[in-house]
Design goal:
The protein is an alpha/beta fold. The chain is 29% helix and 20% strand. The protein has two domains: 3-78 and 141-208 and 307-334, no CATH class; 212-303.
Length: 344
C-alpha cells in the first residue's frame, strides 16, 4: 500500500470516507469466504496453532512463533512450523527450510525462524499442503502457522491474534479505507489476543520484546551492547511491517539514528546501502538474513526475544491440552499424552 493511503488508516478523514463502499465490500467478501470454508474442517492428527492478525503491518507474529516453539519444547512437544514464505519465490510445492536456505526462495521470516529454533519448517503458498508435508515427513505433534489467520482453507484449533498496542486498529475500517483485513467482530472468534508495545486490556495479554546486544553480521562472534553506542550516529535500516518501532527502540537507547525504511520483505541489494558515510549499519534480524552475501564489517543486527505475560503461557498450555483431549477422544492423536510433561 502507498504511504499516502496508509497514513489515512489511522485517522478518520475524507479519504477514508470516500473509500467506505470498497471497505464495506472487502469486509463482506472476507466474511463470506470465512463462512464458506469454515464449514469443512477435516480432522487432523496434530493441533494447529495459528499466529496471525486482522490488521496490516507488523504486530510481532514471528517473535511469538519463535517463543511458542521454544516454550513447547520445554514441555515435551515436538513442534513444526508452516509459513507462506513471504519475500521468497512463489512455489506451489512445499519447501523444507534449513539453516542454509536462501531467503529469496523460502522467505525472510521462515529463514529467521529456522535459524533461531532449528525446528522443522515447510513453506508453501498453500498452507494446507505445507501442513500435510510436515505431518508426512517430520515427527511433529503441534503445528504452528506463522501468519495465515485469513488462509481460511487451513484448519486450526487455536488462534492467537497479535495486536500492535501503539497503532491498535487505526480507524477500525477494513481495507482499503482502513488497516483491517477482517472486521473487528472477528476478534470474538479467536482464542487469545496478545498486545505488543502497550498495556493490555482485560481480555488481552501483554507481550514485551527484549534485546540489548548487537551482533556483527560479518563476524558473529563480535557482540556489542546498545548502551555502548549512546550518542553514536548510525544508519538504521528496517524493512519490516512497522519500521518506526525499530527506529524508536534504537533512539530510546540513545543512538543518533538516520532512518532508512524499506518495504516489508524488501529484497536487499548491496546498492541499498550506498550511504554517503561509513557509519555503522544497524538492522533487524529479519533484514540481516537477506544481507549476509554482501555484508561488511559495518553491518550489525539486533535480535529480539518475545516475553509474553506468564498468564498467557499457562492459559495457552491449558488450551492446547484441552484440544489434545478432544483429538484423543476422536482417535486422531499422533502422540500419546503421557509422552509429554503432564504437569504445568
Amino acid at each position: 500500500m502507498s504511504d499516502f493511503l496508509t497514513q489515512h488508516w489511522y485517522r478518520n478523514g475524507p479519504v477514508a470516507f470516500f473509500l467506505l463502499p470498497l471497505s464495506w465490500l472487502f469486509c463482506r467478501v472476507a466474511g463470506w469466504r470465512r463462512r464458506r470454508t469454515k464449514a469443512a474442517t477435516p480432522s487432523r492428527p496434530a493441533p494447529i496453532v495459528v499466529v496471525g492478525n486482522i490488521s496490516v503491518g507488523g504486530t510481532g507474529k514471528t517473535p511469538m512463533v519463535i517463543w511458542l516453539v521454544e516454550y513447547l519444547r520445554v514441555h515435551g512437544y515436538h513442534p513444526g512450523v508452516v509459513s507462506r514464505g513471504y519475500g521468497g519465490e512463489s512455489r506451489q510445492q512445499p519447501i523444507a527450510v534449513e539453516n542454509r536456505s536462501d531467503a529469496r526462495v523460502v522467505g525472510d521470516e521462515a529463514l529467521l525462524i529456522a535459524r533461531r529454533t532449528g525446528c522443522p519448517i515447510r513453506v508453501c503458498r498453500d498452507r494446507v499442503a505445507a501442513v500435510e508435508a510436515l505431518l508426512a515427513e517430520e515427527d511433529v505433534d503441534v503445528i504452528i502457522s506463522d501468519d495465515g489467520m485469513q488462509h481460511y482453507r487451513m484448519p486450526r484449533d487455536i488462534e492467537i491474534c497479535m495486536i500492535d498496542g501503539a497503532r491498535r486498529f487505526g480507524n477500525e475500517l477494513c481495507l482499503p479505507a482502513g488497516p483491517l483485513r477482517e472486521p473487528l467482530s472477528r476478534l470474538d472468534e479467536v482464542d487469545f489476543r496478545v498486545v505488543t508495545g502497550s498495556l493490555a486490556d482485560d481480555d488481552e495479554y501483554a507481550m514485551e520484546f527484549s534485546g540489548e546486544e548487537l551482533i556483527n553480521l560479518r563476524s558473529p562472534a563480535r557482540r556489542m551492547y546498545l548502551s555502548a553506542l549512546e550518542g553514536v550516529h548510525v544508519n538504521a535500516v528496517a524493512g519490516i511491517g512497522n519500521p518506526a518501532r525499530f527506529f524508536f527502540r534504537l533512539e530510546s537507547a540513545g543512538l543518533q539514528v538516520a532512518r532508512h525504511a524499506f518495504p516489508d520483505h524488501h529484497a536487499y541489494e548491496k546498492e541499498d546501502f550506498a550511504f554517503d558515510n561509513d557509519r555503522m549499519i544497524v538492522m533487524t534480524e529479519k533484514d540481516a538474513v537477506k544481507c549476509g552475501v554482501f555484508a561488511d564489517e559495518r553491518f550489525w543486527y539486533l535480535p529480539v526475544v518475545a516475553r509474553p505475560d506468564p498468564a498467557f503461557a499457562l492459559d495457552f498450555l491449558n488450551r492446547l491440552k484441552e484440544v489434545e483431549r478432544g483429538q484423543e477422544a476422536a482417535g486422531n492423536s499422533r502422540v500419546p499424552g503421557d509422552e509429554r510433561a503432564a504437569d504445568l
